[in-house]
Every structure is written in C-alpha cells, then in structure tokens.
C-alpha cells in the first residue's frame, strides 16, 4: 500500500496496446532464438481462430531455461528442493541441472521417444519431475503432466486423449507424511486405457511396486548408460510444447495445447515483471507441477530467468501450520506465491503459528487460483508480510498460459481483493449477455479482445471445440468464463466463474463431470451439482441425487457415492455434500435450475423468478431433504 504513482505502468501499458507488434517484437528478445523471428503477432480471432506468435523463429526451451545460465553462472542454484520429511533438502546448481536434464533427455531418446511424441508425466514433486519436463523440451517431445492426485480413471482418459505411449512416473510420492501410490495407479490406468505404452519409473520412496519386465523401465537402470551431453532439438516457435488438461463447463476435460516460443516469452516476462525478480533471490511458488501455475511459475518462467526456484514436495501446512514459515526462514525466500485457500487455512489455524518465525527475507507476496477475500488478503499483508510486502493478486487460467490481470510493482496503491490492472498488451473488457460492453461498476462477463503470446492455441484434437468454447459467444474476443467488474480507477475485480465450473481450493471442476461420475453409480437416476461458498476451500461441491427405485438413502450409500467420485476423478473432487431428493427444479424444456438450488442451500427465502419452474411443489421437498442433511 505504498503511494507510488502508476506513471511508469500507464505509459508502458499505453505503448503496449498502441504499438502491439513493436512491443512484442522487442519483448521476444528476452529469450535466445536459434533463428530470429521476423514478426511477432500472426494471430486472428476471426473465422477459424488462428493464434500464432513469432512463427518463423526457432528455439529450444531447455537451452533457454538451463544451458544459457549454466554457461555463465554454473554454480548458481537453479532448484532448491525441500523434501516432505523435515530436514531433507537438495540444492541443484544450473550446471547440475544441465547434466541431469541432458541425461534424462538421452534416456528418453534411447527409449525411442521422438520429437512430437506425447509423454505423460504422473510424478511427485521431486527434481526428477522438473528434469523430465525439461528433457521433453530438449528433445521436442510434448509433455502432458497429470496431477498425481487424479485417479486411475482420469489418468487413463488423459493418456488416451493425448495418444501418449510413454509414461513417466515414480514408485510412490510423499505428502504430509503419507505415501501416495503412483506406479500402482499408472498400472491401473493402463489397464483401463488398454493402451500399449512404455513406463519409465523413478525410484523415490523405495516402496514395493509391481514391475513388468516387458513394459517398465527403472530410470536408475539406464541412467548410468547415457552421457551428460545431449543435442537439443531446434523447435519452431509454433511447435506444440505441452498439453495440459483442465475442466470446462461441458463434457470431458480438454487438453489445452501451448506452443513453444510465445509461451516461454510470456511466462518469463510475467514472472520477472510481476514479482520484480532480482538475480540471486529465492523464489517459492507452492503450486504442484500438475497445474498450469506449476508449469509457468515454478518451472519455465523462473528458470528461463535464471532464477532460484524452490520446489517443495510436501504440504505447506503439515505437519503443522508453521512449516511454511520455517521453509521461508531457512531458505531466505524473497517471493512467496501461493493460493488463497492455503492462506485461509493458515489464518484459521491462528496467528500463534507465525510466532517465533521471522519472515524478514520476504519482499513480495502473490496469490493465484481463486478470488481472495479481503479478510484473507489483509491477514496475508499485515501478519505474514508485516505490512511491508506488496501482494500480487494474479488472475489467469490454464488457457492463458501466464498472468493477464495483476498489480505490477508500480500500480500501487493496492486494493484488497482486486486483481487490478491488465498486464502489458492485454486488452480486457466486460460485457453483458448480449456481448455489449457494460458501464463501469457493472458486473459482467470478462473477455480479452486481443491475443497475447502465452495464449493456448487449441484443444488437442478438437479445434472446433476450442472455437466453440472460447470464441463463439462474442465473436472476435476470447471469453474467459469468469465474471468481473471494473471500478472508477479502471481496476479489475474478479468475481469468479460464471459458467458451470466450480473452483474448489483453486482446482477447477465442471459440474457435468461430477454429475456423470454420480450417475455412473447404479443407485443414481439423476444428479445436479453446484458450487457453494466454503470458508477455507472458497467453494465446495454440493450434489443433489435422485435415487432409482429400490435404493435407500442412508449413510452407507452416501459414502459409496462419494467414493464413486473419488474413483472416477480423484480425491480432490470428493464432494462435501450429497443429498438425496425426490426431484429437481426444472424448466419446461428440462433444464435444471441451478440458480434455485444455490438459493435453497443458502437458505434464502427469495428464490427469484420461479415462473418457469414446471413443478413448484418440488421446492418444499428439497427444503425438507436439506433440513435433514447432516454432512459437513
Ligand atoms: C480462477 C489457474 C480470482 C478463475 C492459474 C479462473 C482467479 C480459474 C484468480 C482458472 C484470481 C485464477 N482471482 N479468480 N487471482 N486466479 N482464478 O485454469 O475463475 O486452474 O477462470 O488456472 O481460476 O483456473 P486454472
């Protein structure tokens, strides 16, 4: 909350949107190109939607994230790895990183992985996960990292959709003292997928896992057989770099495709500018590599900038809520980037966990993934940062590749709960249902009017779905799925999703996905899922189910239904509430009126316009079912 003016920001922003091509041509120089580009923006949101940046340039991401720093600062720490068990850590210099990535890349080549092949990673948060990602980048393989909390069923779907015949995993992961079966889940996923694939396995915990001589390869068996030099593949800027799956409001999760050049320019530039990163500082992003935040701001952005990035294997509030501050103090963390859900849970645990910790090394704080409530913002600002450290409330998405709306170091004063300003070159707008821009202060749908280098290019194997999802509602603009409003100062406030996507602890779930998991159970005839406010998670999943004849609403069945979602999607998607109801509020055309369900859960008396409801008696029956609900 300093009193700096925004002159620097305003001037640069104006230039970035007035002379976009020139601005991005200049910005692209921050990374090393093998063959320079002659043009920056080749995108068009019209017609077939083509997004292209730096198209005739060539480069290699691993050269940019590893080699160019290893050449000049070989001993500088690239990754600080902090293990789940306290006291265990590893510091990996840029030269160590170079050798490890090269070895890993040689292993992949030796196993037959080629440029363009899709490689699925199902990995714990260990350095070899980063080596694997960078090794793919080195040889031009396209990685698809699947968060290690997803179930075998979800993993199978992603392996099949990506047509991936090569999987990298570990025996087990470790989180909060618990062991997470990874190899076992991969085995199960490949049984479900019925796919012929090779599995490269990292020995991490040494746990007992099954091993197929025909299909599986232990990394340590081949590690010593390859060298530490590995020629990198010359990639076109628009060659696919990675696929990352995310949930939308309809259908199965979609594999967003990010390409090589523009993504790296945007990830590295936003990382440096938003956090005002200074060489030598230790930067800690708590996201898992299974999410876009882990890709852009744990691995690629910071490493492209030659930063020291801290990678933590465990859970920041375990074994106690002091763990996170102990790590900050022990490693002199300057920048901490985390999620509102963690901040709320730390706040709920009480200030006593901050006592005895210094946090003096912190210079800047960041949040991402969901709206941050002003109370949690203030706690983060006043208690964690001792009212010294600015907070970057960064708004972005898997689709955007990097941050689009955020405070920048000179856009102060900050406002608790506001994502503030568009990043350079970004032109947001807020529109109503008809696509017309709304007046200042009015809430509407957030969209972006022009492309930027980090934007996802397509949905793997389904460009029609990409166009339909993001570009059909308002032609010529990218529709984000979020609601927002703009205040008198032109600052943006993000409200959250306005489509059928629920954000639980910063993780996206489509209500349709959860509903189809529920109806896959023989007891369930129909299901409707909504997101409801939750004090720690932001939102939680609340499910209504109609049972088939012959099934009894009891605790055993409710537990089975939750288990069904766990098996189908993963532990992170388990709903807090499942309530059996005799019917659902529907319109004459059969559409479920979720708006009414939300109001009923919130115990609101005014249900709004119910004139389109087919059977109003259902309201009283749902109220009765809700009054009997005793779940958390
Ligand atoms: C939400 C995560 C409010 C938003 C990088 C978006 C936010 C979705 C913020 C994307 C923020 C992310 N304030 N909401 N600062 N950051 N969101 O794809 O609803 O996992 O659409 O990407 O998270 O989630 P995703």
Can you describe what's shown?
This protein is an alpha/beta fold and 632 residues long. Among the domains are: 89-233, Rossmann fold; 509-629, GMP Synthetase, Chain A, domain 3. 31% of the residues lie in helices and 23% in strands. The radius of gyration is 24 Å and the shape is globular. The model has no long low-confidence stretch (mean pLDDT 96). Bound molecules: 5'-O-[(S)-ethoxy(hydroxy)phosphoryl]adenosine. 5'-O-[(S)-ethoxy(hydroxy)phosphoryl]adenosine is lined by residues 246, 291-293, 368-371, 393-398, 419, 480-482, 494, 496-497, 503, 508. The site of 5'-O-[(S)-ethoxy(hydroxy)phosphoryl]adenosine has 23 residues, from helix 10, strand 18, strand 24 and strand 25.
Summarize this entry quickly.
By secondary structure, the protein is an alpha/beta fold. The protein contains 18 helices and 30 strands. About 50% of the residues are buried.
Key terms:
globular; GMP Synthetase, Chain A, domain 3; binds 5'-O-[(S)-ethoxy(hydroxy)phosphoryl]adenosine; 18 helices; 8-stranded mixed beta sheet; 31% helix; Rossmann fold; 23% strand; 632 residues; alpha/beta; 7-stranded mixed beta sheet
Can you tell me the CATH class of the domain at 89-233? Alpha Beta
Number of helices: 18
| Termini separation | 38 Å
Work out the radius of gyration.
Answer: 24 Å
> Mind telling me which CATH architecture of the domain at 89-233 this is?
3-Layer(aba) Sandwich
Output the structural class: alpha/beta
Tally of extended strands?
A: 30
- Strands side by side in the biggest sheet: 10-9-6-4-5-12-13-23
**Percent helix among the residues?**
25-40%
In this entry the ligands are: 5'-O-[(S)-ethoxy(hydroxy)phosphoryl]adenosine
The 3D shape can be described as globular
């Amino acid at each position: 909350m300093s009193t700096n003016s925004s002159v620097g920001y305003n001037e640069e922003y104006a230039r970035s949107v007035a002379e976009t091509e020139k601005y991005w041509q200049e910005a692209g120089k921050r990374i090393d190109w093998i063959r320079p580009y002659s043009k920056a923006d080749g995108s068009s949101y019209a017609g077939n939607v083509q997004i292209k940046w730096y198209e005739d340039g060539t480069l290699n991401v691993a050269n940019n994230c590893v080699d160019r720093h290893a050449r000049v600062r070989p001993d500088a720490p690239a990754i600080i790895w902090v293990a789940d068990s306290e006291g265990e850590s590893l510091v990996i210099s840029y030269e160590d990183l170079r050798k490890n990535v090269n070895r890993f890349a040689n292993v992949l080549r030796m196993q037959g992985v080629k440029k363009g092949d899709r490689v699925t990673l199902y990995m714990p948060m260990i350095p070899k996960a980063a080596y694997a990602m960078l090794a793919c980048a080195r040889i031009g393989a396209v990685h698809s990292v699947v968060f290690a909390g997803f179930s075998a069923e979800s993993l199978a779907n992603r392996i099949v959709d990506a047509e991936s015949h090569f999987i990298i995993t570990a025996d087990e992961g470790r989180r909060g003292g618990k062991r997470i079966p990874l190899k076992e889940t991969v085995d199960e996923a490949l049984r479900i997928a019925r796919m012929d694939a090779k599995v490269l396995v990292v020995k991490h915990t040494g746990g007992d896992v099954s091993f197929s001589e025909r299909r599986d390869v232990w990394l340590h068996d081949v590690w010593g057989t390859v060298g530490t030099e590995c020629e990198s593949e010359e990639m076109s800027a628009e060659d696919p770099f990675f696929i990352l799956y995310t949930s939308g409001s309809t259908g199965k999760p979609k594999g967003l495709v990010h390409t090589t050049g523009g993504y790296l320019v945007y990830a590295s530039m936003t990382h440096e500018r938003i956090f005002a990163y200074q060489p030598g500082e230790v930067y800690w992003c708590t996201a898992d590599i299974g999410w876009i935040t882990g890709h852009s701001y744990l691995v690629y952005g910071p490493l492209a900038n030659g930063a020291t990035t801290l990678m933590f294997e465990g859970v920041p509030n375990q074994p106690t809520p002091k763990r996170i501050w102990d790590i900050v103090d022990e490693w002199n963390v300057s920048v901490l980037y985390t999620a509102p859900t963690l901040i709320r849970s730390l706040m709920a645990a009480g200030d006593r966990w901050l006592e005895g910790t210094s946090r003096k090394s912190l210079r800047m704080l960041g949040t991402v993934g969901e709206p941050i409530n002003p109370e949690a913002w203030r706690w983060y600002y006043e208690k964690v940062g001792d009212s010294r450290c600015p907070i970057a409330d960064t708004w972005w998405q898997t689709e955007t590749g990097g941050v689009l709306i955020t405070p920048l170091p000179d856009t102060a004063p900050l406002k608790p709960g506001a994502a503030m300003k568009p990043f350079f070159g970004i032109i947001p707008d807020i529109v109503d249902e008809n696509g017309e821009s709304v007046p200042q202060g009015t809430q509407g749908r957030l969209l972006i009017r022009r492309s930027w280098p980090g934007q996802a290019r397509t949905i793997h194997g389904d460009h029609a779905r990409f166009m339909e999802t993001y570009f059909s509602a308002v032609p010529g603009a990218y529709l984000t799925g979020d609601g927002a409003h703009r205040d008198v100062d032109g600052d943006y406030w993000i409200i959250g999703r306005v489509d059928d996507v629920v954000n639980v602890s910063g993780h996206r779930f489509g209500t349709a996905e959860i509903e189809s998991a529920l109806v896959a159970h023989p007891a369930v005839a129909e299901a409707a899922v909504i997101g409801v406010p939750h004090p720690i998670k932001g939102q939680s999943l609340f499910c209504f189910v109609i049972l088939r004849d012959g099934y009894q609403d009891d605790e055993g069945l409710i537990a089975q239904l939750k288990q069904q979602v766990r098996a189908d999607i993963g532990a992170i998607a388990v709903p807090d509430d499942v309530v059996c109801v005799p019917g659902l509020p529907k319109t004459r055309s059969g559409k479920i009126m979720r708006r009414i369900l939300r109001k009923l859960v919130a115990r609101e008396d005014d249900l709004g316009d119910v004139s389109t409801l087919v059977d109003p008696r259902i309201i009283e029956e749902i109220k009765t079912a809700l009054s009997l609900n005793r779940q958390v």
